[in-house]
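2.7 Reproducibility. Because tokenized structures are sensitive to small changes in the input, we list the exact sequence used for Leucine rich repeat containing 75B, including any N-terminal residues retained from the expression construct. No trimming or masking was applied before prediction.
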Amino acid sequence: TGARPGRLYHILRPDASPAPYVRRVGWLREIQATIREHKREHAVHILRLLRKDLGLEGTFLNEVLYKNATFLNLVDPISHDLLMSLARDLQCPKKEYDPWKSSDRICRQLIYHLTPHSKWHRLKNSLQKKVSQGSMDLSGIPLTMRDVHRMAYYLQNNGDHLTSVDLSFTELNDDMVRLLLPFLWALPKLTHLSLNGNRLTRATMKELTDTMKDMNKFPCLAWVDLGNNVDVSSMPQPLLVGLRKRLSQQTTLPTIYEALDCDPEIPSGQEGGRPEDEEAGSTPRHAVPQQGCER
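Resulting structure tokens (single pass, no recycling of outputs):
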């Protein structure tokens, strides 16, 4: 159907409050409207509410223009970066171009990032279909506790080859994730886990952090997305350490030179890189570019 996710959610669960991302997108649309009406001060006020709701305090430039250590620990650095750009446009507009166009573009980028934009599928069909390329994508499908029980059974019996599980924007809460965790951490090849856009709190973050202390659980996990939830804004250091330990055990990781897109020194006695060396050590196309190259 053509119904928006928020409207469909009310049809499925009329007695429950909308997920946090619905509120945040509403604020972004209000910012767009206030800028059109040249109510810049009101737009800055709404931006302050949005940043606080995402756990990113402060809206003035001297409070948000800090891309140092804390930036690297954020669960959603993309939103942080876009919100900084929006703060610049609202508080320090440049005279040589129309600030409305720039601010509206940033708002549209944020709305796209903070909402589900994958195709809607039937849950039953998605679980019955053969897993393609080792991934399970249920993004955008509102799940109930009954669905989670079915998913746990599916993971237990068919999850050995899964490398990616996408449960973003599925209305998951802490209790649902608590039920799923033992089945997720048992997946031997899981490297990517997406839990963004749900109803998760710091309780889930704590459970996940404690789980990662055991190297036998999530043995290959390299990346987890917990952004755009209720009150989860930063990654605890023990969780980052757990991910780093698992990454260090992967033989296909790029070297530090490759990760920084720089040329490593060629050992003596070797002339040029062999094709098989380049294929084995090349940086994955989806790897996140390192910020160190910009400095």
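Strands lie at 135-137, 164-166, 192-194, 223-225.
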